[in-house]
Amino acid sequence: MTFGIPRETEIAVAGHGAAATAVADVRPPAGPGAAAGGPDPAAPPEVPPAGGSAFDHHGGEPYRAGTPHAQARIDLAAIRANVSRLCDAAGSAEVMAVVKADGYGHGMVAAARAALAGGATWIGVAGMREALALRAAGVPGRLLAWLLTPGDDWNSAVAAGVELSAGADWAVRAAVRAAHAVGRPARLHLEAETGLGRGGATAGDWPALVETAARAEAAGSVRVVGVWSHLARADEPGHPGCDRQLADFRSAAELARRAGLTPEVLHLSNSAATLTLPEAHFDLVRPGLAVYGLSPVPGLAGPAELGLRPAMTLTARLASVKRVPAGHGVSYGHRYRTPRETTLGLVPVGYADGVPRHASQAGPVLVAGRRHKVAGTVCMDQFVLDLGDVPAAPGDEVVLFGPGDRGEPGAQDWARAAHTISHEIVTRIGARVPRTYTGGTVSDAR
Hints:
By secondary structure, the protein is of the alpha/beta class. Helices cover 25% and strands 22% of the residues.
């Protein structure tokens, strides 16, 4: 599979998700003359640093008014290609691209549209508000929301054709009330507890849930279109717990059929199972992390080995550069002291932007083609790098993570540094870091 798709369009988004607003591309060019045809007459004016021209600082890149101090660049072509790869892995099963948590931090609406363009036929989210935001943005197709509460807007969801999960009798009753209120049947996916210990009806409660749903379907209030569950240890291929859950899931589906239900789809697989457990594919798979090009089994294979390409590149620009002597304390608590005279670079993102504080002293970045680690404690809005004798100036780019094309770290490298998982690294990137989209159109990111 080829991921080297040339850049088509780039748009910067202030905030992200369903309410994102597309604005002009304010990323500085790669250098003088990088853009064919000369400077853009619509571009904001360049603001030179005090005492020199716009090109006097290291790196030769112009300062431009409005250039963000940090941004997350999202490659929509990579999302499309990742979904195409997942469709291949799923075989005869359909693919539901999961775009919960604002598309794992990539932008929910843009990710959903790119996933549908890549071959997904379903979109999945956790909360009902996420589903309604997708509908409000005009995202078409089959859409499932599964993490629901009694206080959610069931009427609006049923009216919008959102398919809903029910793992207990109360949820079926809520769907029935909504169906009566809006004048159309609710489409339900019954959730079975098969071993994860989260949502879903236990084996003891499952018969009652199925009976309640069957009565509601016979009355014309609901249509049970799916039976589903979730694997606890799919990221450990070969673990016996997967086989036990598969057996329990088959039993739950068979009981539903004996009660007269005829679900269109059975679904169990997350990203890891989609790629490593074909016997769990059934009629529909629900990849999330892999849609965004990250490995769901990092201990076994990286993205490239799985045919995936990371879609997010997180960058910032140095806000301050200064020489300090040996023994100089750095950041709160002076957990780091300079071993020699050196250059410190200040990166203007911190834990309020999603840079994990647990990656203090360990988080890797790329500056001018060289790897460095966070020096000292990550602060709310900033962290420091010990750059040694590497030439550096305010405005120089710092790459926190990306697909690795330039030797930069990946999200999994930050996950290891913070003793967490790559899911957390990308989803925690905050709203004050604008998303910039490439490999798509302006409408893809709205």
